[in-house]
């Protein structure tokens, strides 16, 4: 009898551990560049941080296809070691996923519409630092997706959608809303994004196509609500071994048809992938605006390491 009880207890322990398996991962990125910058005629040589971050994420298998998960991510400036904004300000969420999709609650930081459009075609340096997209118009929603709820659908025939809604607990502005859709069919990748917050609106579409060693893409964004504008960006990459050659160009028209509010941006970049996680790179970026003293250009070399 005692032997049977021991066998039963051992079986229960094994079954329990198999039923509730969990994983936790530490991840992050350090991205630094040395740049010669010219901001409106003021020249300077700097060490530039490019959205370095550290995070923790994990999942627990609850059985029956159901999983619980968490992500907490903190941004910091690797050039000084100082915090970048609120601690865990990049993301702090709990999630529940299964055959129904994924439900997340917490601080989402950036919007799904941005990731589906502007960020997706920023292939050179992951839309970070001084070479990031300076013309993507709908920046009002960034940093407002806290106290938020997000639902991501399962992927059907290469397509999925995500809806994010932020609770305006202080009642000082309209609640932020972000809707995104992505579609992948072999070399073709399409995206759609809609955002609204505090009287501002943005609708954008994105396309990216892979042609062997070449990747070409772009997006078109239309502003609405209190700010009307048109924004277009084209991007291209050519891969040769460990080398990547990048070029992108964007142009944004006048806001609300007010002369002198448009801008153009161009970036030429080169990446050399030392491994899947580490690359060295160089780029030249130039922002030409119609605002007095607002032009900017930078010549940079840098290194990025993901862990």
Q: Main attributes?
A:
disordered N terminus; 2 helices; 16-stranded antiparallel beta barrel; mainly beta; 307 residues
Detailed description of the structure:
The protein has 307 residues and is mainly β. 7% of the residues lie in helices and 57% in strands. It contains 2 helices and 17 strands. The protein has helices spanning 2-19, 112-116, and strands at residues 22-39, 42-49, 53-63, 66-75, 91-98, 101-107, 148-152, 159-166, 177-185, 188-197, 200-211, 214-225, 229-240, 243-252, 263-273, 278-289, 296-306. The protein has a 16-stranded antiparallel β-barrel. A hairpin with a 4-residue loop joins strand 15 and strand 16. The longest helix is centred in the N-terminal third of the chain and has 18 residues, at 2-19. It is globular, with a radius of gyration of 22 Å. The model is unreliable at 1-18 (pLDDT under 50).
What is the helix/strand order? HEEEEEEHEEEEEEEEEEE
Q: Averaging pLDDT over every residue, what do you get?
A: 91
- As a percent range, the share of helical residues equals under 10%
Percent strand: over 45%
* Order of strands across the main sheet: 1-3-4-5-6-7-8-9-10-11-12-13-14-15-16-17
Query: Unreliable stretches, pLDDT < 50, 5 or more residues?
Result: 1-18
Number of helices: 2
Shape descriptor: globular
Using only CA atoms, what is the Rg?
Answer: 22 Å
Q: Would you report the number of β strands?
A: 17
Distance between the termini: 52 Å
Structural class: mainly beta
How can the largest sheet be summarized?
A: 16 strands, antiparallel, barrel
């Amino acid at each position: 009898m005692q032997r049977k009880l021991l066998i039963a207890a051992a079986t229960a322990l094994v079954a329990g551990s198999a039923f509730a398996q969990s994983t936790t991962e530490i991840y992050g990125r350090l991205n630094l560049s040395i740049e010669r910058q010219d901001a409106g005629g003021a020249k300077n040589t700097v060490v530039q941080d490019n959205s370095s971050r550290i995070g923790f994420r994990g999942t627990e298998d609850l059985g029956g296809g159901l999983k619980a998960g968490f992500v907490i991510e903190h941004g910091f400036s690797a050039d000084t070691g100082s915090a970048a904004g609120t601690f865990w300000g990049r993301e702090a969420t709990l999630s529940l996923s299964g055959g129904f999709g994924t439900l997340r609650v917490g601080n989402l930081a950036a919007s799904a519409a941005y990731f589906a459009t502007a960020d997706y075609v920023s292939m050179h340096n992951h839309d970070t630092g001084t070479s990031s997209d300076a013309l993507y118009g709908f920046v009002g929603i960034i940093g407002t997706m806290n106290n938020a709820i997000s639902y991501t659908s399962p992927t059907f025939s290469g397509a999925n959608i995500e809806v994010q809604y932020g609770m305006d607990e202080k009642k000082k502005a309209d609640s932020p809303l972000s809707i995104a859709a992505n579609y992948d069919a072999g070399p073709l990748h399409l995206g759609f994004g809609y955002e609204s917050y505090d009287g501002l609106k943005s609708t954008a579409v994105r396309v990216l196509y892979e042609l062997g060693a070449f990747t070409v893409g772009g997006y078109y964004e239309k502003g609405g609500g209190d700010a009307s504008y048109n924004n277009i960006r084209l991007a291209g990459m050519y891969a040769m071994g460990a080398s990547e050659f990048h070029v992108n160009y964007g142009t944004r028209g006048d806001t609300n048809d007010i002369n002198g509010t448009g801008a153009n941006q161009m970036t030429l970049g080169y990446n050399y992938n030392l491994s899947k996680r580490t690359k060295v790179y160089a780029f030249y970026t130039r922002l030409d605006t119609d605002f007095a003293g607002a032009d900017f250009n930078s010549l940079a070399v840098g290194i990025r390491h993901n862990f």
